[in-house]
Amino acid sequence: MAEEVxxxxxxxxxPLTFDEYRQQGGYGALNLALRRKPEELWKIVSDAGLRGxxxxxxxxxxxxxxxxxxFPRYVVPNTDEMEPGxxxxxxxxxxxxxxxxxxxILAGYAxxxxxxxxxxxxxxxxxxxxxxxxxxxAREAGFLGKNILGHDFSFDLVxxxxxxxxxxxxxxxxxxxxxxxxxxxxxxxxxxxxxxxxKPTIVNNVETLSCVPPILKNGPEWFRGLARSEKxxxxxxxxxxxxVVCPGCYELPMGTPFGEILEQAGGLPPGRELKAFLPGxxxxxxxxxxxxEVPMDFDALEATGNRLGTGAIIVFDQNTCLVGAxxxxxxxxxxxxxxxxxxxxxxxxxxxxLLWRIEIGEGKEEFIPxxxxxxxxxxxxxxxxxxxxxxPVLGLLNHFEDELREHLxxxxxxxxGPGIDFRDSLxxxxxPSRPTV
Amino acid sequence: xxxxxxxxxxxxxxxxxxxxxxxxxxxxxxxxxxxxxLSDEAVQVAAELLGLTTxxxxxLATFYDFIYREPVGKxxxxxxxxxxxxxxxxxxxxxYLCQKLGVCAGEITKDGLFTVLPTACLGYCDHAPAMLxxxxxxxSLTPERIDEILEKLRTEYCELVICR
Lengths: 437, 164
Hints:
Chain A has 437 residues and is of the alpha/beta class. Chain A has helices at 18-23, 28-33, 38-47, 60-65, 88-95, 97-110, 125-140, 171-178, 191-194, 206-210, 212-218, 220-226, 258-264, 298-303, 322-336, 342-359, 367-377, 385-399, 401-410, 420-430, and strands at 74-79, 115-120, 156-161, 201-205, 235-242, 248-253, 274-278, 287-288, 312-317. Chain B is an alpha+beta fold and 164 residues long.
């Protein structure tokens, strides 16, 4: 079993308490950091090769170094986690809430912020309550609030409860949401200069932030050494779901090959055979069996034309219709689109309609180039949402065109679909006056 | 009419915030809890308390899927329709619930207890198929397990969580 860093000391039934975390050396990194200059933290984190775990993979130290002038400054720990297949942040918060908190405080120190806003989705209400309790514990112990550990650094943290919607995970949309505005992305301003309330703001995923205390404690070389791949760094929380024996969140070295991660989760259930997997949530592309050995890290997946995303691996077996699965994903994205820009608002329902027709046996040959054309057009949208949404469609076209064509030639879904879900939706399509939810 | 004590507690909460507008979702949640859903009156009250226009409240209320602008049952069943749950929907959890309760999406059962809504991936893919009822999560669903859960909700007292 590889070394666990973020999930170390995991209890099966409850989160680690403040005292247990202290016994592990918890909050020691904060003590060390406060004796250094904030800029030194940027360098240590950069040297460690830490990249954002929320999907984009942006180097964390570099992000911090962009922080603009002006005060107050804000840290927004992102626990929106609405990427289908992803649940690592929920697991992390429930395993070791104080590791998460220490990471947030360190980020606060690194950018000289005075306030953190812990952004959390509504379906994680229980976790929001847990974090609120533990914030109070940390505050009483002097790790949050005025003059932390007697130093000239004051920082406090509040929980912001969201009310849903995938787009809130996008940094600039998230900042708008906190300010009580409609959560549209804003690509005109730089968060690091004019973010929350027009002040310098850094939005980081909580898994990313939780890597910071161990980096400061053990050094950048140690962190780099944890990874399996040469360019990778640290460990990664991989979420396994779909047709696997033991779905769950596994902490493994960054760059562990897909096949090994799958074996950790017990492989596929008996009688089921691997057909495809999504490597990093719904906005990555389907990968066929030939990528069994692909190292699961940022660079290796980019080299295959795909992305690591959130590291949420969804496994599909031979009995699952990938046209149906793609249709489900596009339904999701079409509904969750914020509606701000035209390619996304109009294009995704169009792609959904084409896939629908193919799935119910009304597909035509010309739909295939049309699907490709429409998916490629998604790169014209305002933010990264629509290109992400098009990824599984392109994966389907690139690797499973045969399956698409079987739907065309048989004039039905060869897997016995569509389920009743889709028939219902079609009625809605024919009667536009019927209210949709 | 909003009772004075609810109004005062909202005013206190808004006054304590650095920026009143950052409280808008909390205010909507609390009004929703009081009225059962975000009624027209609740939109008016929220606008008044926060110094916003009703249109500004409306554009937020209609954006979020956990803010209900129409009446809902005491228990709102958010059924996950993410791809992992879809894979395990043998016979479809959503349709089973609708049939069992005799409602379509968004409707309220005759006893006023339940509303069923489809919801974006809940983040419980390791326990698919899953649903969320008034902030409490239920996973590994089968028709039998759904029957048990509904029966329990009907008969036993249950504390309502803020995010329903």
